Known about the structure:
Layout: E1 15-17, E2 24-27, E3 31-39, E4 43-50, E5 53-58, E6 62-76, E7 81-85, E8 89-92, E9 97-113
Antiparallel strand pairs: 1-3, 2-5, 3-4, 4-9, 5-9, 6-7, 6-8, 6-9
Amino acid sequence: MTHALTFDPTALEPEVGAPAPDRLISGTPKFRTWNFEEAEGGIYAGIWEATPGKWRIVYDEWEYFHILSGVSIVTEDGGAETHLKAGDSMILRPGFKGSWEVIETTRKDYVIRL
């Protein structure tokens, strides 16, 4: 079954979180996640938001995302910085290691495949 998603942050209670203390580099970022879809085979889709800060990221899964608002910098270990703003998209593959820095509160929609 296919259905359109309309994001209304007041209609769905977000999950709240933060980077694990051992991954935190700077700031006190907070996360809010609205999961819209969880499907067989390890597929997840929704909206994620983070406040300013920087932390280490390690990906064991595939993630495609599209920045809806804000400014962030994703940096792969030993690689270049990728500056992201509203309208930008990115794919992070299993094995990606680096950092995520939120400069301005960032909101993205995402699809994750485990």
